[in-house]
Design goal:
Blueprint (H helix, E strand, L loop, with lengths): L4 E7 L19 H7 L6 H15 L4 E5 L6 H6 L5 E2 L10 H14 L3 E6 L1 H11 L5 E5 L13 H13 L5 E9 L1 H5 L5 E10 L19 H11 L5 E4 L3 H10 L9 E4 L2 E4 L4 H8 L4 E5 L7 E3 L8 H7 L4 E4 L2 H5 L7 E2 L4 H7 L1 E8 L2 E7 L1
Helix pairs in contact: 2-6, 4-5, 8-9, 10-11
């Protein structure tokens, strides 16, 4: 008889809610209420279940899941027919950072082989402050920004990696960075990130996301990229520019505004809607051809699913894969060290449809071909 595997599961139930409505996150006192008022729906439990389902299907022994009460894990486990060990006693309603920290401490004290947590960088900070370099932990990506390198590339990858760690001998772990930024500054277009510490994380390069790398001032190739795309944007299509310094250079070339951390809409080279939420984009997409311009996140390679959740599966499908234009300097691509580009749209089937090879604009009338995993 095989010995049951013991894992912990902590879900931040509000993580990621601000993405599609353009709030850049749900950290802070007012962000959750603002997200809910704008019609945001919870995403963490669904994404956590993707990971948990893969894990359950992969391991060859019983699984004992220790989890906090309510929306922090118990509700998901019970709804899927599991019988979790419920750890802690928290007040019903909205949860906060201290609830996450107390839950993590209690689960580690109870003894687990691996602690899974679903959230964003704020949640990773809470886990770090609670357990430090204690037992192995692994993040299921459900937040908006996720600069930290403690997360699997997708929820499905989190389940795969957790299963390997629990069932195969001598699986490697490494100390991985916990990063977080000031969300109030982030919403105002300023990025202020810092290293908070390290967590001990199971590691396989293809299944764990890298640490976000910042843009370098004066990075070569931006001028050529901007000139190339600005020429194309004079047509009659709706142009949707994702976040980033590369896409901002395109707007600068046009003499138009660009929100550094938002998604903006343009028509015939002129700005028409700034910092658009998913519903804003869909409204403008109605019956109109469109182009989506995105740049991979430095050091990570994500095209969709990190910091641009406004570009939802519905937005991507309406525009069409053929109308996705990827732009990146050769320096940014070199910084990925040969690793493929990534997508984590929230729909596994769409991620599969986007996989393959795609042209990347690297300069004026210059392109390279990159693989999307």
């Amino acid at each position: 008889m095989t010995t049951p595997k013991r894992i912990g599961l902590i879900i931040n139930p509000i993580a990621g809610m601000g993405g599609r409505v353009g709030l850049k996150g749900t950290d802070g006192v007012d962000a959750f209420e603002r997200a809910r008022a704008l019609g945001a729906a919870p995403v963490s439990s669904d994404r956590a279940w993707i990971a948990l389902k893969v894990l359950i299907n992969r391991i060859r022994s019983d699984l004992i899941v220790l989890t906090p009460p309510g929306a922090m894990g118990e509700h998901l486990a019970l709804s899927r027919g599991m019988a979790p060990g419920v750890i802690g006693n928290f007040t019903a309603g909205a949860t906060g950072p201290e609830d996450t920290r107390r839950a993590a401490r209690a689960i580690v004290e109870a003894g687990v082989e691996l602690l899974l947590f679903a959230g964003g960088d704020g949640t990773a900070r809470d886990i770090y402050e609670a357990v430090g370099l204690g037992p192995p932990v692994l993040g299921i990506p459900t937040g908006v920004k996720m600069h930290s390198s403690v997360y699997a590339t997708t929820p499905r990858a989190a389940g795969e990696l957790a299963a390997r760690f629990l069932t195969l001998p001598n699986q490697p772990c490494r100390e991985s960075e916990v990063m977080d930024i000031d969300e109030d500054a982030f919403r105002q277009g300023r990025v202020s990130a810092r290293l908070y510490g390290f967590l001990y994380v199971p590691y396989q390069r293809s299944l764990v996301q890298g640490l976000k790398a910042g843009s370098r001032a004066g990075e070569g190739g931006l001028t050529g990229i901007a000139a190339d795309i600005a020429e194309r944007m004079r047509d009659s299509a709706l142009w949707i520019l994702g976040p980033g310094t590369t896409t901002r250079a395109i707007a600068d070339r046009l003499g138009e505004q660009k929100t550094l951390l938002g998604v903006d809409l343009y028509s015939r080279g002129e700005a028409m809607s700034m910092d658009a939420a998913e519903q804003d984009i869909l409204r403008h997409l109605d019956g109109q051809p469109a182009r989506i311009v995105v740049t991979p996140i430095g050091g990570q390679g994500y095209l969709f699913g990190r910091g641009n959740q406004q570009l939802s599966p519905e937005v991507i499908r309406r525009a069409g894969k053929a109308n996705i234009i990827v732009v990146a300097t050769t320096g940014k691509l070199t910084g990925l060290a040969g690793e493929p580009l990534l997508v984590d749209t929230g729909e596994v089937e769409l991620d599969r449809e986007l996989a393959g090879f795609m042209r990347v604009v690297t300069g004026y009338h210059q392109e390279s071909v990159q693989r999307i995993a």
